[in-house]
């Protein structure tokens, strides 16, 4: 059975006229990966009333959207929200983002610290791996019967996670900078075009979709897709509200 994925936010750092910040939705199984500014699009696209949110880390462009879900919960459009992350990520979100002085009504979330694999409602298994990034981050992989995907963001490719993503049908990977900014990618814990394409090739993935582009470069193609496709032809740039099946 094919999986359906909606890109609710495909940019990094801050939203611009083209892209909101990081949020992906698997609407049929009720799973969101990250909760950036694009997270406001989740409730109306979610198939059921329950939602599991998996956070990669606590930087604002990946978590600020958690505050957007309060009203859908009050209206019982969404009846249960479970938030997963490392203990450090969850503590940071609870202590700072949801501090009473900043956000006076604590949503009725269920908090779950990542320990081992997580079984999803539709039978998929989600696993995770720590990534190198200032403040830390994690990558996610989901395996269903006959389908698999991985979501890797806020790290510098290739890193020590090639085996973790090996042979997935769909790799969603950040590509914050084009190659001419590779030095800055390394300095800031992000990725640039050629190393991501080479990673996809060496890991034997089925398809590469790029996200988390630099919002200061507000162009349709800020990272050089043609060059990336010369290395890994099955590559695409995600756009906000793009939907695909895999």
Description:
The protein has 246 residues and is of the alpha/beta class. It has one domain (4-245): Metallo-beta-lactamase, Chain A (4-Layer Sandwich). The protein has 8 helices and 14 strands. Strands 6-5-4-3-2-1-14 form a 7-stranded mixed sheet. The termini are close together.
What's the arrangement of secondary structure elements?
Blueprint: E1 4-9, E2 23-26, E3 31-33, H1 42-45, E4 50-54, H2 60-63, H3 70-74, E5 80-85, H4 87-97, E6 110-113, E7 118-119, E8 125-131, E9 137-144, E10 147-152, H5 162-165, E11 170-174, H6 182-188, H7 193-203, E12 208-211, H8 225-231, E13 235-237, E14 243-245
Parallel strand pairs: 3-4, 4-5, 5-6, 10-11, 11-12, 12-13
Antiparallel strand pairs: 1-2, 1-14, 2-3, 7-8, 8-9, 9-10
Helix pairs in contact: 7-8
């Amino acid at each position: 059975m094919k999986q359906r994925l909606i890109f609710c936010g495909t940019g990094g750092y801050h939203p611009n006229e083209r892209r909101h910040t990081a949020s992906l939705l698997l609407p049929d199984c009720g799973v969101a990966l990250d909760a950036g500014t694009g997270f406001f699009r989740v409730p109306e696209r979610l198939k059921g009333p329950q939602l599991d949110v998996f956070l990669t880390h606590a930087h604002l462009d990946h978590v600020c959207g958690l505050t957007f879900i309060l009203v859908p919960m009050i209206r019982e459009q969404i009846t249960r929200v479970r938030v997963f992350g490392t203990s450090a990520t969850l503590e940071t979100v609870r202590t700072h983002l949801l501090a009473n002085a900043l956000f006076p009504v604590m949503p009725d979330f269920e908090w779950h610290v990542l320990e081992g694999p997580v079984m999803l409602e539709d039978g998929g298994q989600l696993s995770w791996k720590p990534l190198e990034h200032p403040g830390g981050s994690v990558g996610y992989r989901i395996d269903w019967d006959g389908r698999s995907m991985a979501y890797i963001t806020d790290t510098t490719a290739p890193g020590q996670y090639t085996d973790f993503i090996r042979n997935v049908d769909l790799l969603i990977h950040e590509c914050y900078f084009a190659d001419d900014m590779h030095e800055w990618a390394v300095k800031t814990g992000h990725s640039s075009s050629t190393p991501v394409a080479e990673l996809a090739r060496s890991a034997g993935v089925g398809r590469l979709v790029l996200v988390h582009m630099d919002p200061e470069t507000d162009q349709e193609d800020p990272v050089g897709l043609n060059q990336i496709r010369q290395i890994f032809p099955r590559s695409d740039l995600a756009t906000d509200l793009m939907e695909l099946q895999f």
